[in-house]
Amino acid sequence: MVSLLAAMALAAPAAAQEWSQVTTPAPGPTQSIGFYTAGCLQGAQALPLDGPGYEAIRISRNRYWGQPVVLDFIKRLGEQVRQAGQAHLYIGDIGQPRGGPMPSGHASHQVGLDVDIWFERQPGARRAPAERESPRLRSLVRPDDSGIDDAVFTDQHVALLRMAATAPGVDRMFVNKLIKQRLCQTVTGNRGWLNKLVVWPGHDEHFHVRMFCPPGNPQCQRQAGYYADDGCGEQLDLWFTRPPVTLPPPGTVLPPYRPKLPAACQEILRSP
User: Fold this and answer.
1) Are 165 and 200 contacting, i.e. CB atoms less than 8 angstroms apart?
2) What is the C-alpha separation between 262 and 242, in angstroms, rounded?
3) Which residues span the domain enclosing 207?
């Protein structure tokens, strides 16, 4: 068993603060440099804050920057959601204007190829930007972690996860173990898309989509593979018997962690 203190330590505040204070992207063609948890982004593009089927939340964080492949994925998924008659999506963090470590909230999201999508669905009119800083974001899991909260979880969540997992360019999607378990128990027909759903602690209020390194990004480091099948067997059972990663107790202060970034990232950070 590995504590999340070691497995998912956040960037040291001083180092991450430097990246978060840069408010504009680095010039040049879009390039992801390094790994998802230790890298940066040149030529980042901004997600339009509103689009068919989605709206960005927590806009003040300035974390709506990423690779075009991620922005295209969000736009396609939003359109699919709209056409399916579902309420629009809440889009959370993608990355900072130049990627790099964040002062809080993530160890990944550093190369513009990750995006958080919230499970919360709010039908009706869109919120004004100022009202998107602290929206209601309910978990799909019961507060005591005993199972899925069926007062919140619906078939629309299943459809959403299926649409996202079958989209082109998606490497994997991180979800809570109980969400994966429910899908493994209930999904019928074509179950191949369950392979994309990788268990990771948390991820009960949102799911995290990770895209493959796009072509033409030679410095982007691809992540190793994971499940050979749908991941519904021993790999899932392990999270309920001997979880390979555990969350630290509430209020735990994470130790400083300074990811070793590629040398090119210093130039990205310092460029005008």
Assistant:
1) no
2) 34
3) 2-246
